[in-house]
Write a structure and sequence with these properties.
This protein has a single domain, classed as Orthogonal Bundle (Arc Repressor Mutant, subunit A). It is 57% helix and 10% strand. It has seven helices and two strands; from the N terminus they run H-H-H-H-E-E-H-H-H. Helix 3 crosses helix 4. The longest helix has 13 residues. The model has no long low-confidence stretch (mean pLDDT 94).
Length: 115
């Protein structure tokens, strides 16, 4: 039951659900997620850590970037089921739709230059 609760608690926050929906469309770094959601970097990192601990997100270092992407679900049947369903869920949600449309305009190199 502990693993099930970890997955459901990770998905209980709207921003974490939005992160997963964005990652279904593009591999993103923390600064891109932060920019898309309009949240602080520590908050974005905290959300990613919770998603990663629940088996919903994986990360990979690529030079100076840490790229986040949806997990394959092989470590948790609960995460696998939720990730599979999330592919189809919320596609017609207005907030999610706006985020997905914004993704191509969010570029890590441009964010880095602004800092």
């Amino acid at each position: 039951m502990k693993e099930f609760l970890k997955v459901t608690k990770a998905l209980s926050d709207p921003n974490r659900v939005k992160v997963l929906k964005m990652l279904q469309h593009k591999v993103m770094c923390v600064c891109e997620i932060q920019a898309a959601l309009g949240i602080a970097q520590p908050t974005a990192s905290k959300h990613l850590k919770i998603l990663e601990e629940a088996g919903l997100v994986n990360s990979r270092r690529d030079g100076q970037w840490v790229n986040y992407y949806p997990a394959d679900g092989k470590n948790s049947p609960y995460a696998a089921t939720m990730l599979g369903n999330l592919l189809h869920w919320l596609e017609d949600d207005e907030d999610v739709h706006q985020l997905i449309e914004k993704i191509p305009c969010i570029r890590r190199e441009e964010i880095l230059c602004r800092r």
